[in-house]
Specification:
5-stranded antiparallel β-sheet; Butyryl-CoA Dehydrogenase, subunit A, domain 3; 6 helices; alpha+beta; single chain
Length: 245
């Protein structure tokens, strides 16, 4: 398959990136980053579980799905450092991944619909298929690092809180969703890098990530300096005519 064809790798990378962004969105919105179990020794009362998210906090009795305490203003009063960092890191990771998805889509459309000769205006703007995929792969890798680092830190910070206060804290499902989404972003970047490496072996100009000059402009090698070039303009333009006697 030629370099201009939309490989299955690019389509799979786009779908994987879209699923990863959707997973990040779910992790951001779900109030399930940390649980705090509060036990009671009164047989007439039920234990309470406090579900802490990035933006809201919800307290529920065991066996109930309704929140007895619902705090929609929790995001303004977060007192846990790892969750405060995640409030900034996950939206930043999502924005980076969305930008990478846009570049990936531009690269796919460029390979599918442009002519065999790259457009001179696009080339001057350094826009081409492989360049879009290469930059998109780097952005996906950056989004993975931004998401994965604070998500793993939640696990260690949870152990710190258990040692400092009481062993009542546990990380919840949003941590696993965020880590899985980061893995999807890493897989997406690998697929785009593999596509670029496979496309690089093609002689087509579409693999070049950055055009040094417009592809329609050809550079010509200088002619060899010969004895003829040392003649003056008059000698070159005016031929010498000899008459036979």
């Amino acid at each position: 398959m030629g370099c201009r064809d939309v490989h299955a790798a690019t389509v799979l990378a786009f779908l994987s990136g879209t699923a990863s962004v959707a997973g990040l969105l779910a992790a951001v919105l779900l109030p399930n980053w940390r649980q705090m179990r509060l036990y009671t020794f009164n047989k007439n009362e039920k234990n309470v579980t406090v579900y802490t998210g990035l933006w809201i906090k919800c307290a529920r009795f065991d066996g109930s799905r309704d929140c007895v305490i619902y705090d929609p203003q929790w995001y303004t009063a977060v007192d846990q450092l790892d969750l405060r960092v995640l409030q900034f890191a996950l939206p930043l990771s999502m924005g980076t991944a969305v930008s990478a998805l846009f570049l990936c889509l531009v690269g796919m459309c460029n390979t599918a619909f442009v002519s065999s000769v790259p457009n001179i205006k696009l080339a001057r703007c350094l826009v081409n298929s492989a360049g879009c995929h290469l930059v998109a792969g780097l952005l996906f890798l950056l989004a993975c690092a931004i998401c994965l680092t604070p998500s793993i830190w939640v696990i260690f910070y949870n152990n710190y809180m258990n040692r400092k206060y009481a062993p009542v804290f546990s990380f919840d499902v949003s941590v696993f969703i965020a880590i899985a989404s980061a893995g999807g972003l890493f897989f997406t970047s690998i697929m785009l890098f593999l596509w670029y490496c496979a496309c690089k072996s093609s002689p087509s100009p579409f693999w070049q990530p950055l055009y040094p000059h417009a592809p329609s402009m050809h550079s010509y090698a200088a002619q060899p300096y010969s004895a003829r070039s040392r003649l003056s303009a008059i000698e070159i333009d005016i031929p010498v005519v000899t008459h036979a006697s």
